[in-house]
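RECORD TYPE: protein structure
NAME: ABC transporter substrate-binding protein
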Amino acid sequence: MKTISRRSAFGVIVAGLVLSSAACGGSAGQMQQGQPLVIDDETIATAELVDAASQEGALTVYTAVNEATTTAMNDAFTEDTGIPVEYVRSPSGRLYERIKSEMGAGNFSADVVAIGDPSLVVDLDKSGLFTPYQVPSDAELDQQYKSKNGTYYTYASSPTVLAYNTEAYQGTPPTSWAQLVDGNGQNRFGLVQASASAGGWRLALFMREKLGNGSDSYWRSLAATKPLLDTSTGSLTEKLARGEIAIAAARPPEIAEAQKDGAPVELIWPTDGTPVHGVYMGVTAKAPHPNAAKLYANWVMSKRGQTVQAEFGADYAVRDGVENPTINDKPAPALADIQPNFVPDEVSIERRDLWVPEWNKVFGVSG
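PREDICTED:
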């Protein structure tokens, strides 16, 4: 039996829509045929699954998860298993359209799909995208992290917070969402459109339910400041890093990467709460590499995979016993300390269809 100790260094991030972890310097892998895969005393795969996945020798993931997390996860998986990962990455809305188009044309080829919008993952599930599969760690997971029909899992809790450019921001930066609408207009705010991504919608929902007490009053106050509206968190973070805006709704992984690149940006954990959305993952029903896909799902939901995504992706793990995320070697606050605002998936789905058109109208977005 081969036991693998935890590692702490992975390949550098490579730009581009589609790439292979092997091209990023992934190792030959530690997994051995004929033996179960055991990492940190947790059995991730049986010997039979190891042999079948090794024979397939490849994996394709379609993901809406940020570049830093995706690369770290795929590099670590390849390091542990020797199986290279090719991936297609795009914001949730665009990825959804691509998947639906490819399914309709009969040329869909992903083994695993990871996406962050509950309405989209539910619709894809109803379309027959996923196959029922239970990972070995299923019993360790709270029921809220499992789909009702056993076809996908929530593998991370992703917060949206504030970040500001220390050189562009004038005055004392805010400590809460509420203070964004009290400014004098000198510091332009940026956020992702409600319809563009899972984080954009969850922020819009949080602003209406929590900050507006169920009304669109906060939306209207924020819209009156004429914020910059973007279609992805990555693009918004780039604008913040360049000083085109002074402050933005942001995600820790993108800000961490901007800091590594030397951008003068800092995170703010708002005192009036943090919208959090789940990141979902499932094995596809027509996976070209079904055993490698199952191995990947097992690995992502293992403590090893959960630790990698928390340490390098800066999202909160769903497994107990995994440390809080780290952001450039600085520990993030505990999840309970950021006043996480969770919304049941069914509520989010119901209100999304009703409220996104209203958000678009308030902020002057067509479509």
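COMMENT: The two ends are 56 Å apart (CA to CA).
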